[in-house]
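Exam revision sheet. Question 4 asks you to relate a sequence to its structure. Input first:
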Amino acid sequence: RDGRADRNGVWNSYYTNAAAPSWRAWFLRSAARLRETHGVDGFFLDTVETCLLYPESREGMVSLIRELRAAHPDAVIVLNRGWD
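Answer key, structure tokens:
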């Protein structure tokens, strides 16, 4: 709301807005780099349920997972937790 990321005090981290196209693009570039550099065969997506706290980001999270699948059709994708 103030233009700064909200802090998650439990994990000493920050929430990101999965609805932001620029963040999704950065994430997908990072995923590709991990495959190229380290040869990973899959991705573990932690805290995708963040969109329950920020409902306005739900469609962005869905898009992110779909874009990741499209970019890496042979990769294993594991979601930790999830949503309804």
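Marking note for examiners. The longest strand covers residues 42-45.
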